[in-house]
Amino acid sequence: MVSFPKLVLAVIITVLFVMFIMVLPTISYFSDVMIYPMQNGVFSYYFIFCFLLTIFTMWVFGRKSYYNAFINYSKYRMLNMDALVTLGSFSAFILTVMLIIVYQIEISDSTKSLIDQTSDRAAKMGYISHMLESTALILTVITIGKYYEGKAKSTIISM
After folding, report:
1. How many CB atoms lie within 10 A of CB 127?
2. What DSSP element (H or E) covers 30?
3. Given phi > 0 = left and psi -120 to 50 = alpha, else beta, which region is 79?
4. What is the reported pTM?
5. Contact 143/64 with Cβ under 8 angstroms?
6. For 29-80, how does the pLDDT look when each residue is reduced to its tens digit (9 = 90+)?
7. Residue 61 needs a FRET pair 20 to 30 A away by CA distance; which of 13, 89, 100, 144 works?
8. Are 66 and 148 in contact (CB under 8 A)?
9. Which of 132, 135, 52 is closest to 87 using CA atoms?
């Protein structure tokens, strides 16, 4: 069963991702903050924060699922819900890392003007940040669901 503090942390991280990825980029003031400083590819403080928050989420909420999926498949050749969560979140993260590498190479080899490069970088960074969001939200929503599943099981057992 998932503990209540872990549930609160999952809700906070979910709200953070929804605010940072879906709400703040729509505000015109935030567009300049989102791309600062992007002289060297797709990296900005906004993107680095989202990337580190995703890694933190994978460590806190995904570690147990990753371990259970690996053990269940390696010992028993069984796939369960943890295998689906692992496959979804880890493949989204691997795709994000591959996109970062490809976009970094593509932007460094670009011959476009500075204005076109900046808008191109912002669009590509937005796509990458949505992939990071999907990685983290898969894990946090599953954690929230496991908490309520544990509460329902304990209520049924107590009845």
Report:
1. 13
2. helix 30-34
3. beta
4. 0.85
5. no
6. 776 666 666 655 667 788 888 899 999 999 999 999 999 999 999 999 999 9
7. 100
8. no
9. 135
